[in-house]
Amino acid sequence: QVQLVESGGGLVQPGGSLRLSCAASGFTFSTYYMSWLRQAPGKGPEWVSVINTDGGSTSYADSVRGRFTISRDNAKKTVYLQMNSLKPEDTAVYYCAADEWGAGTPVIEDYEYWGQGTQVTVSS
């Protein structure tokens, strides 16, 4: 059974940091690109970042570049999103998603697997 389980979300003040984790099981994690997407209240989904299979290549949305860092540990079957200098506009439900070619789309159904999401709220 395929599972992607996100964790690490919560409430943080503007300028603060959070580290999201996504633990995978039930598929060959090391052969999949891993992405983070988010959906803010009342807004459409947004693609955030992607990392390739060995972690050697990453890409970011303009809105988070320089503040967020994606990484992965294939031995632990886990992908991470380190989020620094958080802003209120980063408030959203964050999802991790897996596919074999790095779709880079904001539509979660374009991915093969995805998790249930974790809430991130940036507020003072």
Number of strands: 11
Given as residue ranges, the uncertain stretches (5+ residues, pLDDT < 50) are none
Order of secondary-structure elements? EEEEEEEEEEE
Roughly how much helix do the residues carry, as a percent range?
under 10%
From the alpha carbons, calculate the radius of gyration and give it in angstroms: 13 Å
Q: Would you mind describing this structure in some detail?
A:
By secondary structure, the chain is mostly beta strands. It has strands at about 5, 10, 20-25, 35-40, 45-50, 60, 70-75, 80-85, 90-100, 115, 120. The strands form two sheets. Strands 2, 4, 5, 6, 9, 10 and 11 form a seven-stranded mixed sheet that branches. Strands 1-3-8-7 form a four-stranded antiparallel sheet, with no helix packed on it. Strand 4 (about 35-40) and strand 5 (about 45-50) form a beta hairpin. It is globular.
Brief sketch in words of this structure:
With about 120 residues, the protein is an all-beta fold. The chain has no helices and eleven strands. The protein is globular, with a radius of gyration of 13 Å.
Can you tag this structure with a few keywords?
mainly beta, single chain, 124 residues, 48% strand
Fold topology:
Elements: E1 3-7, E2 10-12, E3 18-25, E4 33-39, E5 45-51, E6 58-60, E7 68-73, E8 78-83, E9 92-99, E10 113-114, E11 118-122
Parallel strand pairs: 2-11
Antiparallel strand pairs: 1-3, 3-8, 4-5, 4-9, 5-6, 7-8, 9-10, 9-11
